[in-house]
Design a protein that fits this description.
This protein is α/β, with parallel strands linked by helices. Among the domains are: about 200 residues, Rossmann fold (3-Layer(aba) Sandwich), CATH 3.40.50.300; about 160 residues, no CATH class. It is about 55% helix and about 20% strand. It contains 18 helices and 15 strands. A 6-stranded antiparallel sheet has the order 2-1-4-5-6-7, covered by helices on one side. The protein has a 6-stranded mixed sheet with strand order 8-12-13-3-14-15. Strand 5 and strand 6 form a beta hairpin. Helix 9 runs antiparallel to helix 10. The longest helix is centred in the middle third of the chain and has 51 residues. It is elongated. The mean pLDDT is about 85.
Length: about 550
């Protein structure tokens, strides 16, 4: 429920603070006093469009703050928690609009987007303006009202998701079939690219080995010279390292015959001599290979040039060519399996269409049952609103084509004359009848909608007499389920409120100001009498006002 509303520098309102209570709060005042600005203020906190014209002349910004009690709405507390906003069963929404038209939004002091406010507002408040009933002429709105009355919005959302899945598969299938003509040329091109890649060593290990071969071949002369120098120093003569180690090993063994303590040394020197023999053979083998590496240099360089050239074609590094080859292999397999994929998508398309139509048929049956219940409920209230011969119905017909909302078009039909058959609402209802039909629908759905607050901005326009008394009773019925704020010019409605706010306007020093008064019993009598009697308030008018309030 809405607990409080604070307005600063919005239009002709300088500063207003209003506290609200459950039930029916009526808001009255002279024309032009600023009653509808309260509705605009609530709308701003719930994401309505803001502009510089909303800001009071001569100030930098306008600020509107609304406080909502979420104690009975754990779902909204969870929604705020999911956004990282600490709700604690209360939601404080603040909207700041600058003189330049820019606005900022906050929820419990956390910055939020206007779209977030709209999503939150859709769950918090229904606002019905003076001409809101004209939206009833639109068939999509009629379908939404029917679905809301029958608690079918969840099923409608499921049907919509299935419809989107079905059409996503249809699009893929159409794209696949549309690509038939290009498939042959694409297969030829992909095969050419794969032939080019398969002719080259582009695997990671192959590239590594090729680059190592290139390094050896490019440095073969340096390697050969270095190997010769090693052989000269270590193996070439008896005075080289190998000869010296062999002589030392022989001497150590002779000495060990005298002192066994030298046996270990003799063993190590003999092992070193053996290792040097192995090293000589390894060096000889390596030197013999150097000639072959030198001969391969030109071949390896040509291969590397080819690999880098192909990498440039594919706009990648040489080391990424293996992945490119795998991707092309996959694409070729997909192209070659074109018909198989088409059959799979065809099957999937049929399955998703079947699932969609099955759920849509279920939705249609639920809508048909709901239409009967809605018609009965609306006609009951229309008869109360002085349309005794009214017949109302929600007719379902097959849509021109399947859609996100199912297979049905919904149209409200009505007649207010006993000798005429029902016809589409958009063709037969007058303005006054539309207003009463709108109210009848709202009363019928009052206990069903999950939105806790409903605001009526002079939706009683064109209503009077006995109908006004019935209207006041119906608004009380709505307020038993939801908090109702009603701006009204009808004394019967004003008298029905559990709380009465009066909006006034004054000019002080050339500055217009709007004020709000909470009316007590005596003040309510005066205000209802004003609404009944106009400029001259007589004792009879006051007595009538008391009678309305007592009733």
């Amino acid at each position: 429920m809405l607990k409080a509303l604070s307005i600063r520098d919005l239009a002709i309102v300088r500063s207003v603070d209003i506290e609200f209570e459950p039930g029916l709060t009526v808001i009255t005042g002279e024309t032009g006093a600023g009653k509808s600005i309260l509705v605009d203020a609530v709308g701003l906190t719930l994401g309505d469009r803001a502009d510089s014209g909303s800001v009071r002349a001569g100030v930098e910004r306008a600020t509107v703050t609304a406080i909502f009690d979420l104690a009975a709405r754990p779902d909204l507390v969870a929604l705020l928690d999911a956004q990282g906003i600490d709700a604690r069963e209360e939601c404080v929404v603040r909207r700041v609009v600058g003189a330049d038209g820019r606005s900022r939004a906050f929820c419990n002091d956390a910055p939020v987007s206007v779209q977030f406010l709209k999503d939150l507002g859709d769950r918090l408040v229904d606002i019905h303006g003076q001409h809101a009933h004209h939206s009833l002429l639109e068939r999509p709105i009629q379908r939404e009202l029917l679905d809301e009355f029958g608690d079918l919005t969840g099923l409608t959302a499921k049907v919509g998701a299935l419809y989107r899945d079905w059409h996503a598969v249809q699009r893929r299938l159409a794209e696949l079939r549309g690509g038939h003509q290009d498939a042959a040329s694409r297969i030829e091109f992909v095969r050419f690219q794969l032939d080019e890649l398969n002719a080259l060593p582009v695997g990671a290990s192959e590239l590594e080995e090729l680059e190592a071969t290139h390094r050896r071949a490019a440095n073969s002369e340096r390697l050969r010279t270095g190997a010769a120098a090693i052989a000269q120093r270590v193996f070439a003569t008896e005075r080289s390292a190998r000869g010296a180690v062999a002589q030392a090993a022989h001497s150590a063994r002779e000495l060990a015959a005298i002192d066994e303590g030298l046996n270990g040394l003799a063993d190590l020197l003999e092992q070193a001599s053996i290792n040097l023999d192995e090293a000589e053979r390894e060096l000889d083998h390596y030197t013999a290979q150097l000639g072959a590496n030198a001969e391969d240099l030109s071949r390896v360089e040509r291969l590397l040039d080819d690999i880098h050239g192909v990498a440039r074609k594919h706009r990648c590094l040489p080391g990424e060519l293996g992945a490119v080859r795998q991707r092309l292999d996959d694409e070729l397999a997909s192209l070659l399996n074109h018909e198989v994929l088409e059959r799979e998508l065809d099957t999937q398309c049929a399955a998703t269409e079947h699932a969609y139509r099955q759920e849509a048929e279920g939705l249609r049956k639920r809508r048909q049952a709901t239409a009967a219940r809605l018609a009965k409920a609306v006609m009951k209230h229309l008869h109360e609103l002085s349309l005794p011969h009214a017949q109302f119905g929600a007719e379902l017909s097959a849509a021109a084509q399947p859609g996100e909302h199912g297979l049905d078009d919904v149209e409200f039909v009505v007649t207010t004359n006993p000798d005429l058959p029902p016809r589409p609402l958009r063709k037969v209802a007058s303005g006054g009848e539309l207003s009463r039909i709108s109210l009848a629908l709202q009363v019928a759905a009052a206990g069903i909608s999950g939105v806790p607050v409903v605001v009526y901005d002079e939706v009683d326009t064109g209503v009077g007499g006995r109908v006004a008394a019935v209207l006041s009773r119906l608004l009380k019925e709505i307020s038993a389920h939801r908090q109702v704020l009603c701006i009204t010019h009808l004394p019967q409605v004003a008298a029905a409120g559990t709380r009465h706010l009066q909006i006034g306007k004054s000019v002080k020093g050339g500055v217009t100001e709007t004020s709000v008064r909470y009316l007590d019993t005596a003040s309510r009598i005066d205000e209802v009498a004003r609404m009944l009697g106009g400029e001259e308030i007589t004792r009879k008018t006051l007595a009538h006002a008391k009678e309305l309030l007592n009733a």
